[in-house]
Specification:
It is a single chain. The protein is of the alpha/beta class and 569 residues long. Helix content is 35%, strand content 14%. The strands form 5 sheets. The protein has a 5-stranded mixed sheet, sandwiched between helices. A 4-stranded parallel sheet has the order 11-10-13-14, sandwiched between helices. The protein binds 2 iron/2 sulfur/5 carbonyl/2 water inorganic cluster (HC1) and iron/sulfur cluster.
Length: 569
């Protein structure tokens, strides 16, 4: 436990701590730009420089380990002057038109400049404007806002294992870009949005669909309905001054009604439906000896990855559409008939924690009439928060409301879809009971829970043990794919979610999502599960009712037409 002084205060910290962490543990803030808690230390931006008494040069606090007796000054005139100069130089090569930036008031650079008191820049602008890449429905990349911190490069390379982005050129000409400056739509980008989630400024962000949704809401010829993904209810509160992992389901529904949506539905309902369809698909594959392992198919970043990198794996993917798209298909068929509203007059909006869902909704396969999309617009958690703020809604004083029928009936199994391992656990709760023809002794499968990169469990069905696995992030998914390709995969069923922690850590979630924040949200998700009276998808009477009155049986022709798809590259 080295003893040291930071800003003349005596402290002792654990061996191996960096100065940055030592300061943080003692509530001393050292500003950073390239540093992000779950990523590699880069010490590129040099904003976190501090002075060590008796040492000549300044050191970067993110990468310098403390030593016994060190005396550190985080805000000495030298350190402050260096920080200010670096910030001014960054601003001189940055499109600082803040009011037109998605990160206005939430930008780490803007906050830093403000903290340092930079109200004018001593350096003239050297920005040479480059084209903005808005080539795809999910992610916009604006190189003019990029500060070359390298966080996006790191997350794409080390977390997702993809390396879409890298630096090119030197000095003033250095850029963060794709290979040969290609558009994101022309490289192996999965649209997972992890780069947007960690970008400290407005250089990478989701495509903003809020104006499209406002237009639909104000169009009197449109019947505008909305569905809410499982992970939103445990994360939206953070954007509205509530603590991490606050469960805000009732207020969220009330806010959506205030925004003008005619009906507010729960994606959890079609998550239950997914379990019925996917569960039967797995049972069928096991019984018939068809292709195994079967991979889940509800994460669109994962699907994009398979399409682009491993099209030979298609036969391993479940044919089920995601719950988002099952909802869309039912909205434009079953709901349209039930309410006697033409499908083209129904406008379906999804609130998702995910940027890749925007792409998924626009896929040509995701249309029951082959012309119009089943889901017309997808908003991220951040975009929804923006709309709530635009309307001046006092979120915390809203009276809680319930989802519209039939979606007010959903299971705890559906709720846990938002956490890594949740789809697997939900499926196991159903598949084992159906095959064993008796209730499970315990419905909680702890081995597939938690933030482990790859988790596995053995489950016994009809006296035989099968192995299942769960992977979060695409670099972990790749490990399981390689096992399948090598013929060494011991698994029958595999869940993949592209984002760390699953959807709770999606690319469209509130800024500042870290490993620790995801743990808080996951904790809340399992609380929703425990508080729900029905905890297995096949116990959802509203889903059974839908089969009885509309779909027929699981995997019926109608169910196949509406709820399943196929993938092409
Ligand atoms: Fe997800 Fe899913 S859980 S993919 O993580 O299967 O986005 O929340 O909506 O579709 O239900 C996301 C979350 C979400 C789908 C469901
Ligand atoms: Fe990489 Fe995902 Fe960003 Fe694409 S969206 S560049 S895959 S991190």
């Amino acid at each position: 436990m080295p003893n040291l002084k930071i800003n003349n205060v005596n402290i002792s910290v654990s061996e191996g701590s960096t100065i940055l962490n030592a300061a943080k543990q003692n509530n001393i803030n050292i500003p950073t730009l390239c540093y992000y808690p779950d990523l590699n230390i880069k010490s590129d931006c040099r904003i976190c420089v501090v002075e060590i008494v008796g040492q000549k040069g300044l050191v970067t606090s993110c990468s310098t380990v403390v030593k016994e007796g060190m005396q550190i000054l985080t805000n000495s005139p030298r350190a402050l002057n260096a920080r200010k100069t670096i910030t001014e130089l960054i601003l001189a090569n940055h499109d600082a038109n803040c009011t037109s930036c998605v990160r206005n008031m939430k930008c780490e650079l803007q906050k830093l400049a403000n903290t340092l008191g930079i109200d004018h820049n001593r350096f003239p602008s050297v920005l040479e404007k480059l084209p903005i890449d808005d080539s795809n429905p999910s992610i916009v990349r604006d190189p003019n806002r990029c500060i070359k911190c390298g966080r996006c490069i790191d997350v794409c390379k080390t977390v997702q294992g993809i390396s879409v982005l890298d630096t090119m050129g030197r000095g003033h000409d250095m850029q963060v870009t794709t290979a040969y400056h290609k558009l994101l739509s022309d490289v192996v980008c999965t649209y997972c949005g992890q780069c947007a989630a960690v970008c400290p400024v407005g250089a990478i962000h989701e495509k903003d669909d809020t104006d499209r949704v406002w237009s639909a809401i104000h169009d009197t010829n449109k019947h505008v309905i909305v569905q809410v993904a499982p992970a939103i209810r445990v994360s939206l509160g953070e954007e509205l001054n509530l603590s991490f992992g606050s469960i805000v389901t009732g207020k969220l529904i009330a806010a959506l009604k205030m925004l003008g949506f005619t009906k507010v539905f729960d994606t959890n309902f079609t998550a239950d439906l997914t379990i019925i369809e996917e569960g039967h698909e797995l049972i069928d594959r096991i019984k018939k000896g068809d292709t195994l392992p079967m991979f889940t198919s509800c994460c669109p970043g994962w699907i994009n990855y398979v399409e682009q990198k491993h099209p030979d794996m298609f036969k391993h993917l479940s044919t089920c559409k995601s719950p988002q798209q099952m909802f869309g298909a039912l909205a434009k068929s079953y709901y349209s008939q039930r309410e006697n509203i033409k499908p083209e007059d129904i406008y379906v909006v999804s609130i998702m924690p995910c940027t890749a869902k925007k792409y998924e909704a626009q896929r040509t396969e995701m249309s029951v009439n082959g012309i119009d999309p089943d889901v017309d617009a997808v908003l991220t958690t951040r975009e929804l928060a923006k709309m709530i703020k635009q309307m001046g809604i006092d979120f915390n004083s809203l009276r809680e409301m319930r989802f519209d029928k039939p979606d007010e009936v959903t299971s705890g199994a559906a709720a846990i879809f938002g956490a890594t391992g949740g789809v697997m656990e939900a499926a196991l709760r159903t598949v084992i009971e159906i095959l064993d023809e008796k209730p499970l002794d315990s419905i909680e499968f702890d081995k597939v829970r938690g933030m482990g990169g790859i988790k596995e469990a053995g489950v016994t069905i009809k006296g035989e043990t099968i192995k299942v696995a769960v992977a979060q992030t695409l670099s972990n998914a790749e490990i399981l794919i390689q096992q399948v390709k090598a013929g060494t995969s011991p698994y029958t069923f595999i869940e993949i979610m592209a984002c760390p922690g699953g959807c709770v850590g999606g690319g469209g979630q509130p800024y500042g999502t870290t490993h620790q924040v995801s743990i808080e949200r996951i904790h809340a998700i399992y609380q929703v599960d425990r508080l729900t009276s029905i905890r297995k998808s096949h116990d959802n009477a509203a889903v059974s009712n839908l089969y009885e009155h509309y779909l027929g049986a699981p995997h019926s022709e109608k169910a196949h037409h509406l709820l399943h798809t196929h993938y092409t590259n």
